[in-house]
Amino acid sequence: MADVNLSFDEMWDRIIACDRSYDGLFFTAVKTTKIFCRPSCRSRKPKKVNVEFYFEMNEAEQRGYRPCKRCQPEVEHSPNVSLVKSVKAFLINHYKQKLILQDMADHVGVSPHYLDRLFKKETKETPRSYLERIRVNKAIQLLITTERTNLEICYDVGFQSPSNFYKVFRSLKNCSPSEFRRQNKNGVLE
C-alpha cells in the first residue's frame, strides 16, 4: 500500500481525537516506551516530541517498537481490512478530486454496491461520509494555519460547492467554518 498523504500534525490530531477511521493507515510509535499503537488507542497520550509515525507496522517493528497490548495493532479483526484500508488510503490521497463511488470501487476492483455495503459494515460509515470527514479535517488544518478565505478552502479540499461545504462542516463540527476559525484562533483543535 502507498503511503498516506498526511502531515505529522494531521496524524497527531487524529491520535488526539482517537479517530478509529484512521486505524491501519498509520501507526503511532512512542520513543520513550518503545510501543506502537493504532490512531484510536485509548491509552494515555504521549508528549508530541516523543512520537514517530509509521505507515507500515513492520517498519515500526524494525525500528525496535513492540505492539501495544491495549489496542493490539497487529491484530486484523476482519478479512476485509486490507480492502477497506486501500479505499481509505485512496480517499486520503485523492480527497481533492471529484470522486464518485464508481471511482473508489474501480480502485479496489469491486462493484460500487458491494464496496458501499462492505465499507459501511467495517467502518460504520459510507465511503462518501468518510471522504467528507477527510475534507473537513483538511479544511480545519487550513482554517487554523492559513489566512485563506472559506471559499478558497472549500475548493482546495475538494468540495464542489460552497453550500455543500458549509452543510457538511456544520454537521460534523456544529459550527460554520468562520465560527470555527474565530473559536480556534490560538491553534487548538476541538
UniProtKB/TrEMBL annotation:
<dbReference type="InterPro" id="IPR035451">
    <property type="entry name" value="Ada-like_dom_sf"/>
</dbReference>
<dbReference type="GO" id="GO:0008168">
    <property type="term" value="F:methyltransferase activity"/>
</dbReference>
<dbReference type="InterPro" id="IPR004026">
    <property type="entry name" value="Ada_DNA_repair_Zn-bd"/>
</dbReference>
<dbReference type="GO" id="GO:0032259">
    <property type="term" value="P:methylation"/>
</dbReference>
<keyword id="KW-0238">DNA-binding</keyword>
<keyword id="KW-0010">Activator</keyword>
<dbReference type="Pfam" id="PF12833">
    <property type="entry name" value="HTH_18"/>
</dbReference>
<dbReference type="Pfam" id="PF02805">
    <property type="entry name" value="Ada_Zn_binding"/>
</dbReference>
<keyword id="KW-0808">Transferase</keyword>
<keyword id="KW-0804">Transcription</keyword>
<dbReference type="InterPro" id="IPR009057">
    <property type="entry name" value="Homeodomain-like_sf"/>
</dbReference>
<dbReference type="InterPro" id="IPR016220">
    <property type="entry name" value="Me-P-triester_DNA_alkyl-Trfase"/>
</dbReference>
<keyword id="KW-0489">Methyltransferase</keyword>
<keyword id="KW-0805">Transcription regulation</keyword>
<dbReference type="InterPro" id="IPR018060">
    <property type="entry name" value="HTH_AraC"/>
</dbReference>
<feature type="domain" description="HTH araC/xylS-type">
    <location>
        <begin position="85"/>
        <end position="183"/>
    </location>
</feature>
<protein>
    <submittedName>
        <fullName>AraC family transcriptional regulator of adaptative response / methylphosphotriester-DNA alkyltransferase methyltransferase</fullName>
        <ecNumber>2.1.1.-</ecNumber>
    </submittedName>
</protein>
